[in-house]
Design goal:
Blueprint (H helix, E strand, L loop, with lengths): L1 H4 L4 E4 L14 E4 L6 H5 L3 E4 L3 E3 L5 E3 L8 H5 L3 E7 L3 E2 L2 H6 L8 E3 L4 E3 L5 E3 L6 E7 L3
Parallel strand pairs: 1-2, 1-3, 3-6, 4-7, 6-11
Antiparallel strand pairs: 4-5, 5-8, 9-10
């Protein structure tokens, strides 16, 4: 329903994503792998991923490239990122969340829209990564 509400026609998914999450989606689903070039990722309207951990205190979501989460580029190139966080993977604070991560895995932290300043020092948001992040908390785990 979220994908339909945002007009998503083409969605990218990482290997290992639970196929039941897209059972009602009737658009095109493309599975990502390391050989898919960035130009093809840019043609996607959205990406759906799982997550490793969530932090309640800061709202930060941690992706570590495990099955269902995919490579970093997949979560950064499409304009919409629908991220599923299992309630059982939510920790209260940052130290507890970090303690659940495997140190040998590359980790992407999602904490809010990216921002930078242009040459006139005007703040510009949404420069890097998706323009829209939708987080779904799964409670049936």
């Amino acid at each position: 329903d979220v994908l339909r509400e945002h007009g998503v026609r083409r969605v990218g998914v990482p290997a290992g994503l639970d196929a039941r999450w897209l059972a009602r989606y009737d658009g095109e689903v493309r599975q990502d792998d390391a050989d898919v070039p960035y130009t093809q990722l840019d043609a996607l309207d959205a990406v759906v991923t799982a997550s490793a951990v969530g932090c309640a205190e800061t709202g930060t979501i941690f992706l570590d490239g495990s099955p269902g989460q995919g490579r970093r580029a997949l979560s950064l190139v499409p304009d919409l990122h629908l991220c599923v966080v299992d309630l059982s993977a939510v920790e209260a604070g940052v130290p507890e969340a970090v303690a659940r991560l495997a140190p040998e895995r590359p980790t992407t932290l999602i904490s809010g829209p990216s921002a930078t300043s242009d040459i006139e020092l005007e703040r510009v948001e949404g420069v890097h990564g998706p323009r829209t992040l939708v987080v779904v908390i799964r409670t049936d785990v």
